[in-house]
Amino acid sequence: MNASLEQLVADLQSDERQVAEAALCRLDQGRSCYGPWSVDDGRDYPKEAFAEVIDALHYCAAELVRLRRARPRTDGRLLRVYVCHPFGGDPEGNARKVTAICRSLVEGGHLPIAPHLYLPAFVDEATERDLAVALCLELVAVCDELRVYGRTVTGGMRREIDRAEALGIPVRFVAAEGN
């Protein structure tokens, strides 16, 4: 690794440095398998070697974006976290679980966005399902992060996850006991 690249990596924050070092380690592993990397040496590198480079770069870029989006806000505003959790099946039990999740998020300094707790007050899930889903997807769009809780991902949760990913909003899967 040349000195300027080493300095760039050293100047990264610790979590970003770990990502960059992991990508560089993968490149070194590829170098040992496929030979030296040099764009101008006239060699025809195997497709596998090129795939290793591209894969490492994609991983590094995606992780750096995720880390920067998930970093605590510096503008004084709380991080808005959308709580993605099953609703149907046991609405009352799931609402209790979501309430506990929200309490934990507030204690962690975040602003939970949990439609489970207030949409049932004015939207009938059984007869107004499309409206409920549309409202949830709008709420996803204004969040800084979406966290997925629960042992299964329902169809509605999948739509929320897809919406967040389409908007570039980080999605985290959280293993919470009892959820």
Please characterize this protein's 3D structure.
The structure is a single chain. The chain has 179 residues and is an alpha/beta fold. The protein folds into two domains: 3-70, no CATH class; 79-173, Rossmann fold (3-Layer(aba) Sandwich). Helices cover 53% and strands 9% of the residues. It is built from six helices and four strands, in the order αααβαβαβαβ. Helix 4 links the parallel strand 1 and strand 2. Helix 5 packs parallel to helix 6.
Architecture blueprint of SSEs:
Elements: H1 3-10, H2 14-34, H3 47-70, E1 79-84, H4 91-107, E2 110-113, H5 129-141, E3 145-148, H6 155-166, E4 171-173
Parallel strand pairs: 1-2, 1-3, 3-4
Largest sheet strand order: 2-1-3-4
Overall geometric form: elongated
Overall number of structural domains: 2
Q: What low-confidence regions span 5 or more consecutive residues with pLDDT below 50?
A: none
Q: What's the CATH architecture name of the largest domain?
A: 3-Layer(aba) Sandwich
Mean pLDDT: 78
C-alpha Rg, in Å? 22 Å
- H/E series: HHHEHEHEHE
Largest sheet: 4 strands, parallel
Structural class: alpha/beta
- CATH level 3 topology of the largest domain: Rossmann fold
Q: Percentage of helical residues?
A: 40-55%
Number of strands: 4
Regarding CATH, which class of the largest domain?
Alpha Beta
Proportion of residues in β-strands: 5-15%
